[in-house]
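Handoff note, outgoing to incoming analyst
You'll be picking up this chain. Sequence as last confirmed:
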Amino acid sequence: MAEQKRADYASTKPLATGAWVAAVEEGSPAWEAGIEPGMRIDRVNGVVLRDLVDWRWEADGAVCELEVFDPSDDSVTPCELWREPGQDWGIDFTDVLFDGIRTCVNACQFCFMAMLPPEARSTLTLRDDDYRLSFLQGNFVTLTNVSDEEAERIVTCGLSPMNVSIHAITPEVRCGLIGRHADRGIEVLERLLAGGIEVHAQIVLCPGINDGEELAATLDWVEARPGITSLAIVPLGYTKHSRRFHSSYSDDVEASRAVVRLLEPYQERARRTLGITRFQLSDEFYVDAGLSVPPAETYDGYPQFYDGIGMLRSFLDETVLVARERAYDLRRVEGALVERGVRLELVCGEAAAETIDEFCHALSPDGRAGTRAIRNDYFGGDVNVTGLIVSEDLLAQLPNDLAGVLVILPEVMFNFDKLTLDGDTQAHILEELRGRGALVAVSTPNPGDYLDALLAVLGLDR
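Most recent structure output, in case you need it:
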């Protein structure tokens, strides 16, 4: 159920190694030196660039010496850049990793990649576990493939915070859950914590495997390590293609409530001694347990928002804020819908429908606005999040006659190439829905962005 800012699953574009320049800011030191998009930065101050970390570390001063490769004539040219205090070099790269991605060496029982449909494109099955993406992009990593040299680099360069998956602490449970490299992950994690690296940790909770007494043992271990400033606990998710799992907390109200109860004393101690909740349950647990999501102050500023921690609370609170501070815009949109005889449908996953309905009610108390929850038949299982909606399900479940309907699609169902997980394009989906008579727009699924998208598509933003 964890909503995402946008779908971050794999691009379909081929990966190219090297620090290739994507864009150069006009007037910047790089622009003045003649660096152009399509060139490649091979070295900075004599150091071969492995990733964006190297670039930031080596080019931190007022002067840097580059070796620039120009593919137009296969030349390599030395180049010296100067900048004023606070000035950026003006270079954007095509990727943050220049030497390829570190892949996973684990065999996690709950790995979502192992539950994908057999026809899924190959880029979706790339199992990355790269510590650099943890620092640069917030990905969760296990640290099981991190060498001593890389661990030292993390500490020396201060790559903090890191997002680390723990899952369990008892060696036997970890090995059964993650695989034979499980001990290495804890060894590296201890080294990073000793080196002053802040860690946001995660547990994927699997019924009967790492919950109950094992979860308590893991919480005790985390509680004793103040460098772990937040711990997210998210439930196992499974698809119809899973050979191992066929149920989870979404199927068991009492099991979900037991997890909530187990965590409460840890949360209370953290708030009493540290002033933060620290131990955070994903929104799914409260929904599955039939409980209200906690108030905003218990989420410590939402450090793990994109792991599904506090998204529902944030949406509900922003809906109240929008209703209070943008009431005029809401009434304009409602008036335009009534005047044009248009009904609004906000597309979402089944998990978020009840929450998003709160915004619909704030916009149109008479029911002219509502959600269109898409059942995920493509993945099946307990997959019900907005970010995993696919074209196949969307087009099958929306009516063939959409005349008089304004459909808002969630941007999170598309990746950066504007593709869905089943390979359809955003452009094709928009064309198909317009062919059925609908007005269509795409929006990030939060109240403020919804309202902006509605103003734009209705021509009220001019």
